[in-house]
Amino acid sequence: MALLSPGGCARLSVSRPAHSSRRRTAIVATLPPPRRDTVDWVEATSSFFEGDSRPIMLYDGVCNLCNGGVRFVRDIDRNRKIRYEALQSEAGKNLLRRSGRAPDDISSVVLVEKDRSYIKSDAVLKIMEYVDIPYPQLAFFLHFVPQFVRDFVYDNIANNRYTIFGRSDSCELYDN
Questions:
Q1: What is the structure's pLDDT at 12?
Q2: Whole-angstrom Cα distance, residue 154 to residue 97?
Q3: I need a labelling partner for 111 at 20 to 30 A (CA). Which of 72, 74, 117, 170 fits?
Q4: Closest CA to 120 of 106, 131, 132
């Protein structure tokens, strides 16, 4: 076993069974220094929360299932507690970076709050907590389902969303 440090070198040893006549093998690996992102994305996107502290739901703007989900959330969010931004928009890409995700990652709905981001099933449950009754109560009970089970179901739907629900030619945008 070896402890790897960025920019450093590690020596890994693999032991053979005692009855083996082969010698011990050593593998040496050098890790590149950590990539320093020149932009602090939390600070760069802080203006999104200066005048409006409502969380932002990032969605796949060309996905029919996702657009239906946004319309559904807008209908049950009578107090307009959530804002919406397509993942494909420039703002969406910047908020993805803020959340520690790649700017072209459209694999999950993301809910971005001022101090935290949620992805996959956690994002769905957090969105449910923001909207009107009975969804916050339903979210409370769904938290008892283990996250790996919720994310397994989420991933299976997300990975097949275009096949099952189709895809739009253009990105749908919604007023906040």
A1: 47
A2: 22
A3: 170
A4: 106
Asked whether the beta carbons of 109 and 102 are under 8 A apart, the reply is no
Mean pLDDT per block of 10 residues along the chain (176 residues) reads 46 53 56 61 80 92 92 92 93 90 90 92 94 92 95 95 88 66
CA distance 91 to 97: 10
Which pLDDT score, from 0 to 100, does residue 36 have? 59
Q: Please report the pLDDT score of residue 163 as a whole number.
A: 93
How far apart are the C-alpha atoms of 99 and 110, rounded to whole Å?
Answer: 8
Distance CA 28, CA 126 (A): 45
Q: What is the pLDDT of residue 11?
A: 47
Structure token pair of residue 84:
């919406």
Task: Record the tokens describing residue 105, joined without a space.
Answer: 């990652």
DSSP structure string for 76-131:
H-TT---EEEETTSHHHHHHHHHTTS-TT--SS-EEE-SS-EEEHHHHHHHHHHHS
- Interacting residues of 161 by C-beta distance below 8 A, sequence separation 6+: 60, 63, 64, 65, 66
At 155 the pLDDT is 95
What type of residue is 136? Answer: P
Token pair listed for 154: 């989420």
